[in-house]
Amino acid sequence: MQFRVDRTGGIPAYVQLAGQVREALRLGWLKPGDRLPTVRDAVAASGVNPNTVLKAYRQLEFEGLVEARQGAGTFVKASLRSVDPEVMTDLRDHLAHWVLRAREAGMNDEGARALLGAVLDDKDTEGER
Questions:
Q1: Pairwise CA distance, residues 34 & 74, whole Å
Q2: Which residue intervals define the domain HTH gntR-type in the entry (predicted)?
Q3: Burial class (CB in 10 A: 0-12, 13-18, 19+), 61
């Protein structure tokens, strides 16, 4: 897992880090038993203060998603995955194809995110969820 922090937005760095762990859990990139990067490694990758990483890890621990083991590190305790891995792979492939089509049509990433968000928020697709 490689952390990244967007300093241009108004979202605190610890919230971004915790969100990235949650995202990795939802997508199945992290599973129970996996070790999160050490604070030192997370600091080196993201350029944030060690206390910021610790705050993110404490938040995740409070949520019951990770557990700190003295002298061993921080480990994933729970999963947020709600879809079968094969289904997730199929959905990812379809979405990757859609993104490729959108880019070929001249849509930039910001436009694609806006369109995806609009579809997710669309009341007409609620019954299909």
A1: 9
A2: 11-79
A3: middle
Per-residue pLDDT reduced to its tens digit, 12-24: 999 999 999 999 9
Amino acid at 29: W
Reported residue count of the chain is: 129
Instruction: Please state the pTM of the whole predicted model.
Output: 0.69
* CA–CA–CA angle 77, 79, 83 (5° rounding): 165
Q: Determine contact, residues 65/22, Cβ cutoff 8 Å.
A: yes
CA end-to-end distance (rounded Å), the chain = 29
| Section 102-116 average pLDDT | 92
For residues 89 and 84, give the distance between their C-alpha atoms in angstroms, rounded to a whole number.
9
Q: Give the Cα separation of 69 and 64 in Å (integer).
A: 14
